[in-house]
Every structure is written in structure tokens, then in C-alpha cells.
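Slack export, channel: ligand-projects

TW: morning all. Re-posting the request from yesterday since it got buried. We need the structure predicted with the small molecule present, not the apo form. The ligand is adenosine-5'-triphosphate; the SMILES is in the block with the sequence. No rush, but it would help planning for next week.
GE: picking it up
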Amino acid sequence: MPDVPMFQLHGVGVDYPTPAGVVTAVHDAAFTVPHRGLTVLAGPSGSGKSTLLRVLGLVDRPARGVVRFDGTDTTRLGHAARRQLRRDHLGVVFQQPLDNLLEYLSIEDNLQAAARSARRSCDAAAILARLGLAHTADWQLTALSGGQQQRLAFGCALARGSAVVLADEPTSQLDEASADLVLETIADLVADEYTVVAASHDDRLIALGSRVVWLREGMVDGVEDRKGRAA
Ligand SMILES: Nc1ncnc2c1ncn2[C@@H]1O[C@H](COP(=O)(O)OP(=O)(O)OP(=O)(O)O)[C@@H](O)[C@H]1O
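GE: finished. pasting the full C-alpha cell output, ligand included:
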């Protein structure tokens, strides 16, 4: 069977209603996200990166076009079926580490809560070891640095059993050393055959991409494949 891409977008348009009228944030977008590797949605502020990431995450439904996930046309699915696909396959990491985590829970309990949200159980110790956080299982979240918290957010996607991790500007709120931790985590997931899609204008994250979808003013301005990259 031919390798169906993880995501296929055709003619995707996204509108936002505003008091001043409809704003079209994405125009006629067409691109694919392959299985495995890091695909980066790159471009300046306002180019539509976050909007497209929400479409890929099956959070927002486009006004126009088709979004296939692993061959399934998600735009034809009802709310419950989309929610099930999200729960079973997709993990999302937001730019603010604490938006991904529950502040009143310990580190390990954050992983267990993430697993329960996908109706799974997880080996929290193994995930923490993988993230270099084995010694922190009982710690409160605020004892971790921003980079460690963001690592844990990726760990929550692992705990949920998500084969696809969608990350919105995962390094933009972090200092350089913390961002390094996140870049290492993304490279580690990619090496382990996860599919990672990141919206970013961080040059170091873009440089890790095996595919870069360049956006400008809500349009796809080019797709760059960098086959043979480690990530
Ligand atoms: N909820 C909304 N209501 C109205 N317009 C919106 C909304 N969200 C985004 N937009 C507009 O859609 C366009 C694309 O926004 P989007 O946030 O997707 O871009 P971005 O590339 O992720 O930008 P940034 O890097 O600043 O996060 C922008 O013109 C933005 O103002």
C-alpha cells in the first residue's frame, strides 16, 4: 500500500468573523505532512501558522477545502468522530509551558492525568527518564525550569500515546538554554518515528525541519524538503 501522508490539505481556507467583517486568515492552502519527521509551518507574525496548526489539530474546521488525516477526510466527520481522532492520535503543545500542564499536580501526576485524558495508562517513570526528568517525579511543577516544563508538555503527548505531536511556537517563551532542551526533545521524538508539526519563526527550530512549509499573508509561499536530515 502506498504511504499515505499523515495530513493532506487541499484548497483550505479559514475565515474569522470580526466586528469589522470577515478576516480570511488562510487562503487556498495545499500541502502535505509526511509520516514521521519534523514539519515546520514557518513565516512571519500573522502569516497563518497558528491557524493552520489548529486546523491540523482538528480543533478548527476550515471554511473551505479538505483536510485528510491518514487518508480520512476529516471535514466530512461529525464532532464526535473528530474528537475521537484527536484523543487517539493527536497531542498538542502550546507556547506557554503552563498552558499545557496542571499546576496543582506533581510532575508524575501531570503525566498520569494526560494519559487518563486519552483513556490510557502510561509508564510515567520511563517517560521521565527519557526526558531527563527521572529525579523530579514527586516535584511540584513550579520547581521545573520553563524548558523542563515544556519538555514535560511533550511528555504528556507521549503519555497520551499520540503518534502526532502538534506544537505551537514551543520555544518562543523560553530563553536559549531552555529552548535547547525543547529542540533536543523534538529531535528525540523524531528519531523515534513520531510525526511532529511545529508552527514557529525560531530559526533553530526551522533548521531542524525535514519539511518546511513557508507561509506569507495566509498563503503557502513554498514547501522545502530537506531529505536526509537527522530530524
Ligand atoms: N480569533 C481571531 N479573530 C480574528 N482574526 C484572527 C483570529 N486569529 C487570528 N486572526 C488573524 O488571522 C491571521 C493569521 O493569524 P495567526 O495567529 O494564524 O498567524 P501566526 O502566523 O500564527 O502569527 P503569530 O506568529 O503572531 O502567532 C492574522 O491576520 C490574525 O490577525
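GE: first-pass observations. Residues 12 and 29 are 5 Å apart (CA to CA). The pocket of adenosine-5'-triphosphate is lined by residues 16, 18, 23, 25, 43, 45-51, 199 (CB under 6 Å).
TW: perfect, thank you
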